[in-house]
Amino acid sequence: MCRSIRTLRPPALPGEATDEDIHAAALQYVRKVSGFRAPAAHNRDAFEQAVSAVSRATAELLAALEVRGRADARRSAP
Length: 78
Hints:
The protein is built from two helices and no strands. By secondary structure, the protein is mostly helical. Helix 1 (about 20-35) packs across helix 2. The chain is elongated, with a radius of gyration of 15 Å.
């Protein structure tokens, strides 16, 4: 578990996660998995592509989650 990655969904986060929040979490994840805080020049493209892919996947996940007990939680149409 990467302890510096924080939960990005309510109620842990008071509002919606920003693009910056999502990018920071993705960056921390890729750093942890790769073992590099900053990649060497020959690995930079792969590192940045991974951060982008994780950011997209995180944004999709957060958009699809239904958080129970929220007034604006999505509900299935009858």
